[in-house]
Design a protein that fits this description.
- The complex is a heterodimer of chains A (89) and B (417).
- With 89 residues, chain A is mainly β.
- Chain A is 15% helix and 40% strand.
- Chain A is built from two helices and six strands.
- Chain A has a four-stranded antiparallel β-sheet.
- In chain A, a hairpin with a 5-residue loop joins strand 5 and strand 6.
- Chain A is globular and about 45 Å long.
- Chain A starts with a strand and ends with a helix.
- Chain B is an alpha/beta fold.
- Chain B folds into two domains: 212 residues, FAD/NAD(P)-binding domain; 152 residues, D-Amino Acid Oxidase, Chain A, domain 2 (2-Layer Sandwich).
- In chain B, strands 1, 2, 8, 9, 10, 11, 17 and 18 form an eight-stranded mixed β-sheet that branches. An eight-stranded mixed β-sheet of chain B has the order 5-6-4-13-14-15-12-16, sandwiched between helices.
- In chain B, strand 9 and strand 10 form a beta hairpin.
- Classes of the chains: A mainly beta (89), B alpha/beta (417).
Chain lengths: 89, 417
Amino acid sequence: MQLFPCPFCGTRDETEFRFLGEADAPRPVGGAAAPIADWTRYLYFHRNRKGRVAEIWSHAPCGETFRMERDNVTHVVIGSASLRKESAR
Amino acid sequence: MSKRYSALALAVEGLRGHTGWRPVWRFPKPQPAYDAVIVGGGGHGLAAAYYLAKLHGIRRIAVLEKGWLGGGNTGRNTTVVRSNYFYPESVALYDLALRLYEGLSRDLNYNIMLSQRGIINVAHSDAEMEICARLANAMQINGVDAELFGPEQVRRVAPALNFDPQARYPVFGGVWHQRGGTARHDGVAWGYARAADALGVDVIQNCAVEDFLIEGGECKGVVTAAGTIRAERVGLAAASHSATLAAKAGFELPTRVYTLQAMVSEPVKPVLDTVVLTLGTGTYVSQSDKGELVFGGGLDRITSFAQRGNPPAHEFIVAGLLDAFPGFGQLKLMRQWAGVVDVVPDSSPLIGPSPVPGLFLNCGWGTGGFKAIPAGGWLLAHLLAKGEHHPISRPFDLDRFARGALIDEAAGSGIAH
């Protein structure tokens, strides 16, 4: 069982976490006015880097949504950080 | 050059102590230029090379494989072939594959050990039976064999299942697909490699493609560890690594890369002569000719390029098997392994031109690439020869995401892919 670091709860089993997507994939601005290509890319396309990646994960029991950096070949976790505004201060 | 296989050749070799067998493909050095280069020496890449040479008369073809032939997902799947899909587009694709599989041993002069033993999707409630009826009806309308089974008919094709009405996943019935079954996965890769080699295709192993040669915005070849190889057209059939290679060519794919596990038990006497998939847990199982139970289930939940599975998914798959077949709990697990699969949001593949002219895609098969090998290869060969879609591959173009024309088989056929 792999352990992931929740910024709020600490280290927990991998089964408690949910993968939400790659980090740094900004939502198109402008709603329906944004180009279809931007929405298509945002909704469906991914970078799929091999090795060190930054991803958005959620910890189901506490609801914390956070950014985690890890290596997707060795499964080594490099670090995690909350996305809450107060933690950025 | 390899000799033709036959019962007579086998008998003659038997009398000579099997001293006359020779390697069945060459180990050529890459040439500086080809008409077509195919990246990936798994089933799809080798099949594409074979059909390109055989049906389209193109002779200067190379298949570049970074490891050994069929060493990726082609050699890591659970060998199941079937065409029990919901949408007409999918049926046209997967039934083309199954029909080609049905004639493949003869076509390649290589025994791929196709065994159309039938596959049963087992349902556990009245609601699931309604979904099964919907799938069976869709399959029949699309011209694929399907039969809605009640519990007694399921008992006839899989008597070892748990028929206790108090079971966590009781058997209410299911969809029977007689033409589904298994084939020897290594044999498919080797058979295509041997037949392609005999047509003059250079099958080159231990030759990793590192980048593409882009001139004037068009793909003009590949860059490998062994140097640059020019090509009029390039086909990309590298499964999960298609996405990392696409990044080199400057575009992204709508895939996510996950681990998919499979495992085998110790060999036992014949106990299961069909393929069983239980809808409740997604576990599927068949018994190999050696007697091992070959089984797998859903994806690991963590995106990964690691080619090894994590314990939670492993445990879930084993638990699913033991729910369906409590008697298998006495068996020891012999081997467990994993492949890295590229999953598309609609669980359908990506076949067609890439955003870079001259570079064509055959990837995104996710968890179901093996059953589609002959069709994927056949359609990629058509793309490489004609530069445009065959009608069967058109719906699977990358443009379906911008158009919203997804072919959502995960929802349609409601089964693991």
